[in-house]
Design brief:
- By secondary structure, this protein is α/β, with parallel strands linked by helices.
- It has one domain: Alpha-Beta Complex (Spore Coat Polysaccharide Biosynthesis Protein SpsA, Chain A).
- The strands form 3 sheets. Strands 1, 2, 3, 4, 5, 6, 7, 8, 9 and 11 form a 10-stranded mixed beta sheet that branches. A two-stranded antiparallel sheet has the order 10-14. A two-stranded antiparallel ribbon has the order 12-13.
- β7 and β8 form a beta hairpin.
- The longest helix is centred in the C-terminal third of the chain and has 19 residues.
- The radius of gyration is 20 Å and the shape is globular.
- The chain starts with 8 loop residues before the first helix and ends in a 9-residue tail after the last strand.
- Bound molecules: guanosine-5'-diphosphate and magnesium ion.
- Guanosine-5'-diphosphate binds next to β2, β3 and α6.
Length: 342
């Protein structure tokens, strides 16, 4: 395998004995390294060339919901929805529900998505008795109240390089292996310098925050290629059983929680080829990184703020101290399965 194990022994000592995954002995790398590597080898598959008709047959009556969280994605959402609708709703009955959850878009995201064939909900209009918050995780949590599929696939709305094979690729392990509860996509990232070249590494927050945290705190997950990938699949009963951070912590939370509760064999990953999306400014990524550190710290028992919101102060030369304060949403929604019916 390409992915290396968790590295030097000093990292291993820091990992300690976590609640559901402390079987490795201290002072040796063998067990940890072996588990991440063995998982990579048995749980990684190629998601680029699925036989869609065979996957439709493998549904055996189960329903599939595709959920696309979107905020101000007017330029890209139309092609994504139309592509999935054409190939996987109309040409093959793989996707039963194609749903966009829009939060507070100020552009024509909702209209474009509806015109392209999606059912569109505004996150705040779903179960208004439960209040509403900004954020990607909030949109995904709210989607549980307006979708019915036993199997759910999430796709980002800002993709500029992608293919409809993402959806069957992500569903394959869920349809073919009852033990698998959560499937992560991974891909080369297409560089945004106009060269068209591919980079095998993840984005900045993946390489500088998520991967280091996993290697330090949950080394069994060190071979997850793209832990923050926005393209993933999950069983409804699994997502419904877990708390969901309202912001960008949704992906790392799901990964850590599925692993802690059901073990490594509940996870699989698929190679989806290459992907391109719009890139964010580093100050925006700073907010995202803060969310991910907090969400991960809570789950491994590391010191965390425990707050529902925090402020991240970012230096701006033109601003007087305390510079620019960025709101960081740290709220988590409770497991949807325990929320009273409206
Ligand atoms: N509904 C909704 N979607 C969001 C929100 N924030 C981000 N998203 C969507 O989540 C996906 C990933 O967000 P993005 O900002 O591209 O994050 P990145 O790809 O990790 O840099 C995109 O489809 C966004 O439109 C939000 O507050 N509400
Ligand atoms: Mg993006």
């Amino acid at each position: 395998m390409q992915t290396r194990g968790p590295g030097p022994a000093c990292l291993h000592i820091v990992t300690g004995e976590g609640p559901a995954h402390g079987r490795q002995g201290h002072g040796t790398m063998v067990g940890v390294d072996g588990r991440a590597q063995a998982w990579f080898e048995r749980a990684t598959s190629d998601g680029r060339d699925n036989d869609v008709a065979a996957l439709v047959a493998a549904k055996r009556g189960r329903r599939v919901s595709v959920v696309i969280p979107a905020r101000n994605e007017e330029p890209t959402i139309g092609a994504i929805v139309a592509g999935i609708h054409d190939d996987l709703v109309r040409a093959h009955p793989l996707v039963d529900e194609l749903v966009v959850i829009d939060s507070d878009s100020t552009d024509a995201t909702s209209q474009v998505a509806a015109d392209a064939g999606a059912r569109v909900h505004s996150a705040r209009s779903i179960r208004p008795d439960l209040d509403g918050y900004p954020g990607k995780g909030e949109a995904i949590w709210k989607s549980l109240f307006v979708t019915t599929g036993e199997l759910m696939v999430c796709i980002d709305a800002d993709l500029t390089g992608w293919g409809t094979h993402f959806v069957p690729g992500l569903l394959g392990p869920l349809l073919n292996d009852e033990r698998v509860r959560h499937v992560k996509g991974f891909y080369d990232r297409v560089l945004d310098d106009g060269s068209g070249l591919h980079a095998p590494q993840g984005g900045r927050v993946t390489e500088l925050v998520a991967r280091p945290l996993l290697n330090l705190w949950r080394p069994e997950l060190a071979a997850v290629v793209q832990p923050l990938a926005g393209e993933w699949a999950v069983r409804r009963d699994t997502l419904s059983a877990l708390p969901v951070p309202t912001g960008y912590g949704v992906e790392i939370a799901l990964l850590l929680d599925v692993h802690a509760r059901w073990g490594l064999d509940a996870l699989a990953q698929v190679d989806l080829g290459a992907r391109a999306h719009s890139h964010q400014a580093v100050h925006d990524l700073g907010v995202m990184a803060t969310e991910i550190i907090e969400v991960a710290a809570r789950r491994v028992g590391a010191p965390s703020s425990g707050a529902e919101d925090a402020t991240l102060w970012q230096y701006v030369r033109a601003a007087a101290p305390p510079w620019r304060g960025r709101d960081v949403p740290l709220r988590e929604r409770p497991p949807a399965a325990g929320v009273a019916v409206a």
